[in-house]
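CORE FACILITY INTAKE
Project code: CF-77B
Contact: R.S. (postdoc)
Sample description: multi-component assembly, two entities in total
Requested service: structural model of the whole complex
Turnaround: standard
Below are the sequence entries exactly as provided by the requester. Do not edit them.
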Amino acid sequence: MNVRKYLFFFDALGQNAARSRINECARANTAVEAHELTDEAFPDRSALLQQVRKCLSAQKIGTFLHVYAAWELLQPIRQMAAEIGFAEKEMELVGFGEKAKNVFCPGCQKMSTAAAGDAVLICRHCGLKLSVSSHYSRRLDAYLGYAVIPYNGKESINRRS
Amino acid sequence: MNSVTARFPFPLKEDYYRYSNNSVLLDPPVAIEITPEYQEEIELKRRLLAENHSQFYQSLSHTLEAQWEVVQLLLEQLAEYYPEQFDLVRKGDFWTFTNRLTKETERFIFGRAADLPCEPLDFVGRHVQEDLILMGHRDGDLYLDAGQLCFPSNWSLAFDLGMTFVELHSPIPRFSDNNLDKKVRDFIMRIEPGTPWVRRNWGLNAGRRLDTTPGTFHIWGQERGKVTEENAGELVHMRVEVQKLFRLPRSYFILFTIHTHLISLKELSQNREWAARLLAVLTEIPDFISEYKGFHPYKDSVIRYLSRVLDEARE
């Protein structure tokens, strides 16, 4: 692809890595446009995503997209860019911090998603309450969920790790 | 002493327990054992497989040759070591296997998958009390490639399929201290055809249940909250897994068989030496092991129960 412009979005977590990448791109004699997505500028997440959508929609052919941001911000931007028409090879997406996880329910053997930092979730298929363990399967790209049950008035988790 | 107590494979050899590679040579080299619970356990296995097949059976497609090797090993051993209950007639590749306990006769061409009602490992597993695990040995590592696992000690075959030995055991706290996990894996990778090994693993269960999968923990796990010093004798069971390791000579896979035995603490205490040994181990055992093995919530009730039984025996 013939790159005419490098378009950057980055947040507080991704800013150091983004800035050194911007410097590299700037040396290539191609236009660089960079947007900082800070909590100060966009206290509201949906306003932030709206602004990103507006910017992505306005791009012409030949724009290469770089996103350096927390996983939870990266995922909706990736989805949005794909909807607008960016191909996978026109994007560099670098996630930071904790990533949303696939969680395997041992009861119904189906997958749910835990947001970054969530230790407990409800299986969206069978309703079992699951604690997200650190046991990981590369084949499934998922973490094992262990059932949480009431026990002596408290909650007991099957296996702690 | 009743018959259950007489034949229970009590695993503790000293008053102290930590994880270790405690395998010894298996003599005689038999992968399976038939006990009086055969009918009951085979019926349970087949019911579990019928109700929720993927929970209890999983395989990767490259395991088919090794699966047939397991069929050969186990059917030959059943006929050789239990000739009154089982019979195997081979005419070339045409095999006739008779199971007199289930009153079944199976006829098939050895190696022809279409002749069996299910995959070979799944088929042969329905005739033995053992759980059967196949581990592939390649690229200097061991992989969980197939298994019929109806009586797991709280681990999920559907989730763990395809993992390396080290990944598989990563939930066990401190099992990787001093590289014990890699040492055990390396030991298994050195096992040679014709030289099988055996070890015993143990735990305590609240309730009498063989199929303790994490998928039904919300049901059987509730029993843990009900244990008291008064009911521990009937409610709490010692669970022993007799685990055997065989090298399959043609496919070079490892066959891992697990025979699970349960005995109530009341039955176990008929042997005072066992009760005293278990009491000593539980008194000393660190929390990270009792939590992982799942009996931490009611360990003190069991200790009080065993102490009382031993005190009464001395009076």
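Facility notes:
- The mean pLDDT of chain B is 96.
- The CA atoms of residues 51 and 93 of chain B lie 33 Å apart.
Invoice: internal transfer
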